[in-house]
Input
Amino acid sequence: MNKPRTKSEVKRNQILDAATVQFTQHGYAATSMDLIAKLAGVSKQTVYSHFGNKDELFITAISYKCELLGVGELLPENLGPVEPTLTLFAQGFFTMITSADSMAVHRTCAAESLAHPHLSRLFFEAGPLFVIDKLANCLTEYHRRGELDIEDCRQAAIQFLAIIKGEQWTRLEFNIEESLSEQEINHYLQSSVRLFVRGYQSLS
Amino acid sequence: MNKPRTKSEVKRNQILDAATVQFTQHGYAATSMDLIAKLAGVSKQTVYSHFGNKDELFITAISYKCELLGVGELLPENLGPVEPTLTLFAQGFFTMITSADSMAVHRTCAAESLAHPHLSRLFFEAGPLFVIDKLANCLTEYHRRGELDIEDCRQAAIQFLAIIKGEQWTRLEFNIEESLSEQEINHYLQSSVRLFVRGYQSLS
DNA sequence: GTCTATATAGCGATAGAC
DNA sequence: GTCTATCGCTATATAGAC
Output
């Protein structure tokens, strides 16, 4: 956002870009400070002057990537009819979480969750928790309107998001070659929205 | 299963045990061949004579651990009424996938899925895919009896398993300290079974 | 087969010149 | 601030004695 003015800031950004790519692509352990310096076109010492040590650079890079993913703009301001709105949201959410970038960040954070609990927590709050709250508010509104009969909206949001992730996401997580076709995925998403709406429909 | 007869086989088992614990507990990169040798009470060279290199030992150890987890015995032979049966299955499934051992293997396989696709595929088939098929058969039976109205039973199985995993599993994956209470979890599982049954109930 | 000792290489981090 | 050169350490893997 802030345009770099000094030469220092330019190099800092180069380092951060290179680090972000390497950390998310190959994980923490497999990424060396030497390689980051080389890819950023600076010396290793310059990397250390800017970020102190590997951990600090790692945390900065992942936080930076989380911002870029932009989880916030998935639900519309004014909610339309339940089923079409949820279907649209489901498609957007699914596309987002199965994107290569999102998968890469998730994988890296999960892998380092034991060594860097601070980092995985940061990701968990900016990602899953954030979306849960957003959707829970949306479901509360539908409940208020009497279109859905939900006792615990936060719980229902968790259930909805979990269904949408489904199997395809796990396939990607494990890097399984054969993935589902776009048609199969759309069929799955539609079926899932229907299951959810039927499960929580108002009977009155 | 096979009782080791020679001294060689005893040492091989010691190595495999130590390797399994270390790899699942601390991951691939953080586990050194030196430590495995030390914990197994043998020399490093002995480790190499038995398993060639680190990768081969890794794959052998994880495969071994997958067998031990025993995913097969979650559904009863004779299916009772839908809701109680699914509730019991949900509890068993949830307990299994959130166990420390299961989490550890999952984490390790996912983390190494890029470097060892053969391994992650092995886990994916022995774990998630296996359970999906089992549950799909069960749902097919309920559909045949007319107790559930399911168009695609495999898809429905995926949906059910995804809901059950829910948020708590993700918390564990990211090593988030605050986890849900047993009461909250049971409430979630019951609510999820109800959602599923209502969403797929026969209307006739 | 099994051990001790070692070769070889890559890592994170630092020292000192400019 | 930035560079080159290097330290100190640990890793995988191997050589050679028993």
